[in-house]
Amino acid sequence: QPSGRSNQIFVAQKGYDPELPPLPDNIEEEDEDSVKIISLFKSQEPLGATIKRDESTGAIVVARIMRGGAADRSGLIHEGDELREVNGVQMEDKTPEEIIPIMAQSQGEVTFKVIPVPGIKEELSANETMLFVRSLFDYNPEEDPAIPCRQAGLGFKRGDILQIVNQEDDTWWQACRHGDSNSRAGLIPSRQLQERWASIDRCVTGISFPAAGLRRSFRLGRRGGRSGNVESKRKSQEMGGATQTPTYLEVAPYCRDHKEGRRLVLLVGPSGVGLSELKRRLLLSDPDHYGVTVPHTTREKRKQEKDGVEYHFVSRQTFEMDIVNHKFLEYGEHRGNYYGTSLESVHKVIGEDKVCLLDVQPNTVQRLHTTEFKPCVVFVKPPLIQELRFSRRKATLISTQDMTKLTKTFSEEDFEDMISSAEAMDSQYGHLFEMVVVNGDFAMAFNKLRAELEKLETEAPQWIPVEWTSHTKQNTESVC
Ligand SMILES: Nc1ncnc2c1ncn2[C@@H]1O[C@H](COP(=O)(O)OP(=O)(O)OP(=O)(O)O)[C@@H](O)[C@H]1O
């Protein structure tokens, strides 16, 4: 070869090629640049690369290589490479929109003539990144005008587990959906980009998030079929839960060791949505497997009640000492009596090797969101208003206005409150929710919840926040 020119010929070496094609014999010499001829054998699978026109030079360049795609697996085409020809067709005067169909229609041997981006060594794709996330929002690239290449996008639903394989670009990450047979990555908005969009949305719509703990009847102490709770001051020992934009939650696979307690199940939702009913029915369906906490109260014990069964009956002084000592997850006062759920009562149920079902205010979730409890937070949300009206037409709820009547039917205002309260909870605490159950038709909601909770016991691995899987032990000092 004449000096100063270095026409190189590369062929794909990886196993996706059924057979290597013969090398092209009409390679023209280029005067200045180092030209690379790449011959790939292309099946139905797309090349897995995006192209764009370089603004300054006007050249067609490879914009992005999708991890796991044919181009990536070949290790021969790189981001920044200038595309001169595809199967002998000059790219110079073509737009990216004209080139894409040429590439898509190519079958079998496809020859690319490229000017390689300087400084890139020929290498196969790096080891896969082991970064897994749970998506906290739905994404459809077909509806996203901002995505640089719609065909390269990966759509997903809230709750899907994604493996992030490339974060080199600040705005568009590459990811695969866990469990998909297709290992080719697609483009998804980066965390940064999603946060930016969400903050713009908030400015445009003017949504601000009301504090949790909106109208809600006092549920503490409602066990089995008994009810008797009316509106009360209800306090959570730990306020908090700053608004977070739902983007991605880093997760890790988890398989329960049989010596460990079962994961706590926290039911969260707006007042009247059906948390108590779902909890009660789960308990009835399998009382050996599910358990609920016994609350504390300062009210007088009734004749038929037994201490430690319906309630732990304690004095006001003891209860207030327990408040000071942070023994309660939640407590409240109703008609001059305290009611509260202690942390110890949760430990007790878990200690019996049962799944502890607890319905709490969303701001209490934070306190239980620990390695010890590994809670599965179930958000129970109302259906659309028409279905809500229809499904609740015979239902009653605890009266909060009229003290002479214990129960009342749902009003239109109750439905609207329920829906807006659910939206606010989802906006503020959605990042903590692992499951979402829409409680329209009760039987359907109950069956879905039971099936999902069974999966928690049987499906391995489960995906839990990555910080719960670190094995750093606290309080491990020992006296010697
Ligand atoms: N899917 C449903 N269809 C019809 N009625 C329902 C449904 N879910 C719950 N209910 C009824 O709605 C009423 C309120 O439900 P429940 O007491 O379980 O709500 P809650 O979420 O615990 O509310 P609160 O926080 O006010 O105690 C009950 O009478 C219950 O039987």
Automatic annotation (TrEMBL):
Matching InterPro entries: GK/Ca_channel_bsu, Guanylate_kin-like_dom, Guanylate_kinase_CS, MAGUK, P-loop_NTPase, PDZ, PDZ_sf, SH3-like_dom_sf
Record SMART domains: GuKc, PDZ, SH3
Domain Guanylate kinase-like: 262-454
Lineage top rank: taxon: Eukaryota
PROSITE patterns the record matches: GUANYLATE_KINASE_1, GUANYLATE_KINASE_2, PDZ, SH3
Keyword Transferase among record annotations: no
SUPFAM superfamilies in the record: P-loop containing nucleoside triphosphate hydrolases (SSF52540), PDZ domain-like (SSF50156), SH3-domain (SSF50044)
Keyword S-adenosyl-L-methionine (UniProt): no
Record's keyword terms, sorted: SH3 domain
Residue intervals of the SH3 domain: 128-198
Limits of the PDZ domain: 37-118
Location of region: Disordered: 1-24, 223-243
Skewed-composition ranges (Polar residues): 1-10
Gene3D superfamilies (UniProt xref): 2.30.42.10, P-loop containing nucleotide triphosphate hydrolases, SH3 Domains
Family: Belongs to the MAGUK family.
Protein known as: Membrane protein, palmitoylated 7b (MAGUK p55 subfamily member 7)
Native source organism of the sequence: Oncorhynchus tshawytscha
